[in-house]
């Protein structure tokens, strides 16, 4: 009879891929994207026969899409961020 060692197999700890710093940046990015979409909304008219030139103002044409793109950039940064890296 062979001497069998009692081996207890340890399961690896379940760690999240992202840390708190990543999730913080992700929520900031989501907030910037949401703000961009909120600024894009509105400007319509209840009467389809009335032209409302407010749909072409700076807020809806330049600012809101820029905020959405910046928000997506923040999301990419949050995914690529390595919180364990020391300076």
Automatic annotation (TrEMBL):
Residue stretches spanning the membrane: 23-43, 63-81
Superkingdom of origin: Bacteria
Keyword terms: Membrane, Transmembrane, Transmembrane helix
InterPro entries: DUF3098
One Pfam family linked to the record: DUF3098
Protein name as it appears in the record: DUF3098 domain-containing protein
